Amino acid sequence: MTALELTGHSLIAGRTVAGTGASFHAIAPATGDELEPSYSQIDVDQLREATAAADEAFPSFSALAPEAHAAFLDSVADEIEKIRDAIVERAMQETGLPNARLNGEVGRTAGQLRMFAGVVRSGLFRGVRIDPAIPDRAPAPRVDIRQRKLPVGPVAVFGASNFPLAFSTAGGDTASALAAGCPVIFKAHSSHPGTSELVANAIARAVASHDLHPGVFSAIFGPGRTVGQALVTDPVIQAVGFTGSRSGGLSLVQAAQSRAVPIPVYAEMSSVNPVFILPGALDDGIEDLATAYVTSAVGSSGQLCTQPGTVFVPEGEKGDAFVAAVSTAIAASTGQTMLSPSIASAWRDGTATRDDHAEVTARGSDGSGPHAPAPVIHSASLEQFMSNEVLHEEIFGAASLIVRYRDVAELPAAAEHLEGQLTATLHLTDADAADAAALLPVLERKAGRILANGWPTGVEVGHAMVHGGPFPATSDPRTTSVGSLAIERFLRPVAYQNLPDALLPEPLKDANPWGVPRLIDGALEG
């Protein structure tokens, strides 16, 4: 068997394992056809093989020296890029997403891994703090206390439907957990199993090439209600990463909290990403602004967690001109293939419900194939929006709601009425500065990322990015799932008091053999 042949089975600690449960096929959303091979699903007993292997791998993997650890992450990126064409070809079949989008995802996935390799080499994430002993301090001596951050243990990661690469097998959750020193058990999404298998095998090749314990990574196929729940409740698992629906995320949170020893679930779930167009932004360039909005709303068939689902637009002549330009652009648009039949069905249900509560401003045309519904924009007054919770619900896909407001002074109260969000966006000019200043404190409480004069789709992978937000955007607003700060989710601090130097871990020894950055008495060493 070559590296690119699909087996239709799980990968458990470097071994291909045929599941004992029912099999399933991926469905090509563009045609509705089944894709070969069929995928066997493991049972709970087989899952325990993966968690036991991860538990065995943790001591050695968590203690890797920085360069060996970073080189492994680089190798995962290299192995993925070696089979870029095969990954993109299969992902196109399984998701209906275009070649350019998927090639971008391969690049983003490899880039995330290399970014985390740099994080490991820098050593800053280890959070080393040293308060040296002061034996002659009065009235009492100070003991020697040294702190570092340790990986929490094996981590479960659930693949996302809308990002078959960047938020799936080797995506942000997996990359940040591996960078922290945590073995990963990845539960593949049933919509793109072949893509997941190809990437999983690339990770396994990197594990083997660095002579790491094979339990560092496993990828499994299994039913969410049994195997998924069993994975979260397995005592070996110490944290969970998830991107998906609110119902799916909350079920994992509930399972994790019901354990004898509860664990954190970092779930990205639901966001309408409000956009506030302030009056000055409509002084000129209305058509360009409308085109940019439509492009952001319908790109990738609207199946992005940062899609602008609610846009606040002033009443009046300029606001009317903006809505007219949006209507023209939407009317000329054509539906794109959605990721799966079930997602397309949920989109149709959601937009049909909204039809009963808001005005249809414009609707595009259906695309080719059975799962490419026409994009749609609805409109409502601010009063309707404030009094109708149906208008606050996320519709995952190419649908958005324009909310018309009379006075910019109404916007802080409207923002207060919103749920937690991944993003909030302001379109403004210098003339809107005072109004924006009044709105910003509310948006800071509501969102993880605040943008000015842009659109929220497109999440830069870097050191300052926050891709998270208050509930229900995520289950824990203190974290991010994108960027180098994501590693913090899978670490915990440990303090060492008065330990002899010979017993201290490498980053805490007086000689600092790993050369990691350290705070000595609160000041950066050196």
TrEMBL record:
It comes from Candidatus Microbacterium stercoravium. This is Aldehyde dehydrogenase (NADP(+)). Residues 21-462 form the Aldehyde dehydrogenase domain. Keywords: Oxidoreductase. Signal peptide: none annotated. The keyword Oxidoreductase applies. GO terms for molecular function: oxidoreductase activity, acting on the aldehyde or oxo group of donors, NAD or NADP as acceptor. InterPro entries: Ald_DH/histidinol_DH (IPR016161), Ald_DH_C (IPR016163), Ald_DH_N (IPR016162), Aldehyde_DH_dom (IPR015590), Aldehyde_DH_Superfamily (IPR050740), ALDH_KGSADH (IPR044151). The lineage of its organism: Bacteria, Bacillati, Actinomycetota, Actinomycetes, Micrococcales. The keyword Oxidoreductase applies. It comes from the Bacteria.
